[in-house]
From TrEMBL, chains A, B:
Keywords: ATP-binding, Ligase, Nucleotide-binding. Signal peptide: none annotated. This is Acyl-CoA synthetase. In the N-terminal section; belongs to the acetate CoA ligase alpha subunit family. InterPro entries: AcCoA-synth-alpha, Acyl-CoA_Synth/Transferase, ATP-grasp, ATP_grasp_subdomain_1, CoA-bd, Ligase_CoA_dom, NAD(P)-bd_dom_sf, Succ_CoA_lig_flav_dom. It holds the Pfam family Ligase_CoA_2. GO terms for molecular function: acetate-CoA ligase (ADP-forming) activity; ATP binding; metal ion binding. Residues 493-529 form the ATP-grasp domain.
Amino acid sequence: MEGLTNFYNPAGVAVIGASSKPGKVGNSIVKNMIQSGYRGGIYPVNPKDKEIEGLSAYPAVTDIPGPVDLAVLAVPARLVVDAAVQCGEKGVQNLVVITAGFKETGKEGLELEKELVAACRRYGMRMLGPNCVGLIDTHTPLNASFTKTTPIKGDIAFLSQSGATLIAILDWSRSVGLGFSKMASLGNKGDLSEIEFIAEAAGDPYTRVIACYLEDVADGRRFLDVVRQATRKKPVIILKSGTSQAGARAASSHTGALAGSDLAYDTAFRQCGVIRARSMTELFELAIAFSRCPVPGGNRVAIVTNSGGPGIVATDNVENHHLAMARFTKETIAELRAGLPAEAALYNPVDVLGDGKADRYRFALEKVCADPNVDSVVVLMCPTAVAQPLETTRAVVELAQKYPGKPVLGGYLGGESMAEGEQLMSESGLACFTFPEPAIAAISGLVRYGAFRDAPVAENDLDYPDVDQKAVKAVFYDVLRDNRLVLLGSEAAAVAKAYGIPSAPVTLATTAVEAVGQAEMMGYPVVLKVASPKILHKTDVGGVKVGLNAAADVRRGFTEIMENVNRLLPDAPVYGIEVQKMMPRGTELIIGMTRDLQFGPMIACGLGGIYVNLLKDVSFRLAHGLTRREIEAMLAETKAYTLLRGYRGEKPADLPALVEAVGRTARLVLDFPEINEIDINPVFAYNQGLSALDIKITISVS
Amino acid sequence: MEGLTNFYNPAGVAVIGASSKPGKVGNSIVKNMIQSGYRGGIYPVNPKDKEIEGLSAYPAVTDIPGPVDLAVLAVPARLVVDAAVQCGEKGVQNLVVITAGFKETGKEGLELEKELVAACRRYGMRMLGPNCVGLIDTHTPLNASFTKTTPIKGDIAFLSQSGATLIAILDWSRSVGLGFSKMASLGNKGDLSEIEFIAEAAGDPYTRVIACYLEDVADGRRFLDVVRQATRKKPVIILKSGTSQAGARAASSHTGALAGSDLAYDTAFRQCGVIRARSMTELFELAIAFSRCPVPGGNRVAIVTNSGGPGIVATDNVENHHLAMARFTKETIAELRAGLPAEAALYNPVDVLGDGKADRYRFALEKVCADPNVDSVVVLMCPTAVAQPLETTRAVVELAQKYPGKPVLGGYLGGESMAEGEQLMSESGLACFTFPEPAIAAISGLVRYGAFRDAPVAENDLDYPDVDQKAVKAVFYDVLRDNRLVLLGSEAAAVAKAYGIPSAPVTLATTAVEAVGQAEMMGYPVVLKVASPKILHKTDVGGVKVGLNAAADVRRGFTEIMENVNRLLPDAPVYGIEVQKMMPRGTELIIGMTRDLQFGPMIACGLGGIYVNLLKDVSFRLAHGLTRREIEAMLAETKAYTLLRGYRGEKPADLPALVEAVGRTARLVLDFPEINEIDINPVFAYNQGLSALDIKITISVS
């Protein structure tokens, strides 16, 4: 069930529920199909009409003489399943179900949608929708939707989980001259989802960039696998809404989808190379830039301007986006000095001054574009008295063509005075914005995408042949048999040991003699802790003794703890007393795991200790597809990393050992889906090695 | 020298350097003055022409028969000072100096500018510029600039430090239908600056909101005083560029101004109620919203939409901006349920569905606007097949008029389909954006402004009658006499003591006997530290002894430290040995002060200890105008605050004592401008009281 076949270029399209009444959805679809210029057969299906919009109409899809690859269904919801079955009988490959009244309306609708999907499966049909606006391809051409207008031909593919948003964007795009290769309204995603459509667009020669509005992702694991491939081919930009808790509630009342946490989405997008847009404006600013600019070779930006103010604003944004201001070569500076007026600013930003005309822009741009230290160029222009937007743009276009590897973007500040210039930029396939900020934000997106695309393909290198799966299984078996889901400290330590995660030795003693023996084995000092799944605050009931240095202390400690617990919590089940070796203090870290509904296990690592929730210095990665290099990148994102590298003269921590411990934790949670949560806090990191101190593992009944 | 008189409404305007040649600046100004509809006398001054653009021209300003309040100078730079002097002789009140070639060109230009300013001072004239585009008032009307077009009449005052940006914004504003009450190009700010123009606009009945593009602030201290007053009257929105280090360099090469740190600007803006825009787009989105919306009574936002997607996006943004989604009353819900289709979403956002027409919007809006739990309303609309943008907008306008205290903003997604509706919104004085995000961002700005404006006026309540200024002066005198700028620990402790900042006792002992006596006085345990301005790493040379519990220990410690230091650093001057009482550990905080070039002393407080630079959990306030309530707000911004209030069962810290200590530190640095830096780290905060442990004070030669 991979990929889409003939969805956008079908041989024959049936419109089931076609109507001759203007204003009806079934009428709009037929008209759109005709007006789109679609070259195959268009077959309105309606039992009452002989002819619709000048085309022969058929009582049923099975009555159509020619081949029908695609059927667009706009009949009432209760008729959809039957219509789908008939499509199956006819040999239709693909359905676009416009009709609403399915999952989005509640339980009954959900049942109806299941029936519909089952019918599709039975006949091997794929389906877009239900509850969608349809799909459009400007290159086939094809407009199997009920939109009021058709998009301008272009090279942006737009996928939208919200039909009304697709309609709005289409309307808006025409007013700003933005073109699309294809548009698909994903609706309820009963069968096909963004995953198949992203994969399709990635292989589409007419599409240069894929822009999506999503409220959730259909299948997190598959999304990761498929989109990771797609982004190697072309940029995928996603505006994912429902980021806030309130927004997610609104999203879920809207689509009935169970959304993963926004943090997981953020992590997933980053790990598979998706550029995440933060607003609708940014989604399309990025789409424009990606569709019109090459991916630059690096992050060094040059700015050429005729006014200081916008140059400063652009420079601020270069820094805010973690880009670099290009440092020109000596030769470039010398040439600029020779050719520009004495008052001109020669260093980046280059200011050709308010009396600069097109020739001065051309001169400066020639030097700047040719400079090997420049990766991308932003041309800022204010409508000064002598500014020549059109002539200047001619120079910009020529230079952009001469240096096809360097993005050259415009920031033309103004209205009517700049219109001609902006239009020529757009017609020449260059990105031009009204203000400096979006131009710099666009370069930032291009640079981030380039870094992802050009990084060597990550290999799955989290394989540790020495892990002992059987030992872990045995522990979990015992825990479940004991009707528990939370492991005791000694059990968790055993799991860690089985997976080679270095941890302080912990054993369970049921008698004082046993405790002394264990303490002698592991060496002093030791800690004693009561082992009981019912006692959460062990210290409060006198259930902990620290810093015990000799056998006598252990013996006395054991007895005292037992007495304390028996006195204060006589009914609590006590499994014994845990003996843990006290480890020397190191840098306190945390390694953790939570399982996201959509994307599976998510690993966390960062600053540990009791203030972990306060300081929130933790970074995240999804365990699926995680690599050692990614773990290094993950650690480098934390403030703890500065500590680990040796802060204020302290010795650096053993980073390779930490990477290994995180990797082994990821391996553990990938191998054991029944692990619900892990919380190792603190992990003491030393100059040599590390040690997990307190390991909490919760499992679920698998 | 306060305020502006007759700048925008002068009796008689001379244009010195007027020209009859089209394209010349001196010609554009005369034309603009004529075309503006200015009702007073316009007097071109040019020794060669008898008539310019149909007006009598005069050889010199002194030859003009009528009164001249304002002279616009566009003569070459070398002639400007003479022209200014003649204006002074004529009795001109105000100058607008368009001419460039002053401070911005370097040292000579700076001298010329000083001469010009001196000439103005001599005659009591005020000056805008030099090196500016001029100024415009659409209500007087008056256009004393060389802009190509005139702005649409409106109620936004725009002040711009960049002339080209002003020109660009003017050009752009006409294309988007945005109106201005006045525009001023500040140029080099040789005399007048944003300060006077903000104060003027605050009192201008035609101005509702003040928008500024600034690269620096002329006088930080006066800016604070004046703008704090202005923002009580009307909103001031500022885009301050040069925020990045690279941007500040670009700004400083541009204007030659010495910019304060961006953090200080951020703090200053917040403390005086300025809404800071983060981009040029946001500057005007906020300006539009402020000019068209009332300030809401609270932060509870209601959303009415005809499509789920944009509703979710808006909801996300409500949360991101720390606004609240309004919770409707039971009555509202019941009414909505009764009047809307079963599938409609009744809870916020209210979804009137894709088939919702104007009547359904009107119904929902009536209920939502009337709800007492709603402070502001966003109307989102997608161009669905049946959407009625114009009719819906009529309902929106009526309801906005019916509830004048509640902002009602539009987010009309689309292009041509929405144009009529958007236009009616604009004509009706309502704010309408193309996407949901700017509408929510605008409400966030309105809410923040309202909170500032409506807060009781802060009183200067940092007066501590018990402070001992003489004691501090004596310490500084001794330090300077000793040719030092860094205080010894004992000196710093004495300063703290004089200002009532609780600190661990520190004394300086020159003999072992003295040390023992001091230790006995303060009580054990104590720490000994070598006191020498030349020894920075005291521990490394054996210059520190901690945890001394008895006289014998102190005696031995004293001798050992002296021996160690004499052996390892025989040439270091040693003032003696500091005896400090060891204090019990508390929550580690930092209190600090750096002096900003523009805004003076800036107080910092937050999490202390050795990781202070790593964790960066510190918040800032300018000491000028600081109040106890502001200090409380400052503390509440830090993560440390969570600790101080009692984290994970710990006892809360003595917050009033901390507020007092911060306030006394602020008092100290306000009283002693010679204090350059203070760094008190750690401060131990206890359940009762606190104690400053390590106090570093650096002074400058005053």
